[in-house]
Amino acid sequence: MDIWEQLYQAAKPLYHPEAVNDFIYAHNVVCALQSKSGEIYTGFCIEGLSGTINLCAERVALLNMYTTSGETEVKRLIAFRDAPPTGITGMPCGVCRETLLQFSTNNRNTQIMADYATRQTVTLGSLLPDWWGDIKKQN
Ligand SMILES: [Zn+2]
């Protein structure tokens, strides 16, 4: 079992879309990531009727890592919905991309699973070229 399958298997049980109550809906996207130290952390999306409460699975996994260990660097991550691990997986949204990079600029090297079947990945840095924070650091 390679690391990507380990990540997939860690996140898969979290996929069970459900209404927590009349206001909160959760578990319809899941994520597993591997931190710099090698630990695996998971997360699932949490959405509320007021949009600002919404948290994607990627950010929940990141915050799980950070609040549990204090780590900020992510080696690799996978996010997906109900699809079996035979094809295209989810790309992080703009907010998640930005959050990952603000937690550590080294996360530009984070490998993000793009196609599970072929193990094609992309780096976070390739998804955020000319990041505004690099300009800020030069000033
Ligand atoms: Zn997101």
Task: Report on this structure.
Belongs to the cytidine and deoxycytidylate deaminase family. Pfam families: dCMP_cyt_deam_1. Residues 1-135 form the CMP/dCMP-type deaminase domain. The chain is an alpha+beta fold and 139 residues long. The chain starts with a helix and ends with a helix. The chain has helices spanning 3-11, 57-69, 94-103, 124-127, 132-138, and strands at 18-19, 24-35, 40-48, 74-80, 111-115, 120-123. Helix content is 31%, strand content 28%. A hairpin with a 4-residue loop joins strand 5 and strand 6. The protein has one domain (3-138): Cytidine Deaminase, domain 2 (3-Layer(aba) Sandwich), CATH 3.40.140.10. The site of zinc ion (ZN) has 7 residues, from helix 2 and helix 3. Zinc ion (ZN) is lined by residues 56, 58-59, 92-93, 95-96.
What share of residues is helical? 25-40%
Named once each, the bound ligands are: zinc ion
Residue-averaged pLDDT: 93
Number of domains: 1
Strand fraction: 25-35%
CATH class: Alpha Beta
Radius of gyration over all CA atoms, rounded? 15 Å
Provide a count of the helices.
Answer: 5
Say how many strands there are: 6
Structural class per helix/strand content?
alpha+beta
Terminal-residue CA separation = 46 Å
Instruction: Using the coordinates shown, work out and report the CATH topology.
Output: Cytidine Deaminase, domain 2
Which series of helices and strands comes N to C? HEEEHEHEEHH
Uncertain stretches: none
Shape designation: globular
Largest sheet: 6 strands, mixed
Keywords: Hydrolase, Metal-binding, Zinc
GO molecular function, one term: identical protein binding
Protein name: Cytidine deaminase
Pfam family, one: dCMP_cyt_deam_1
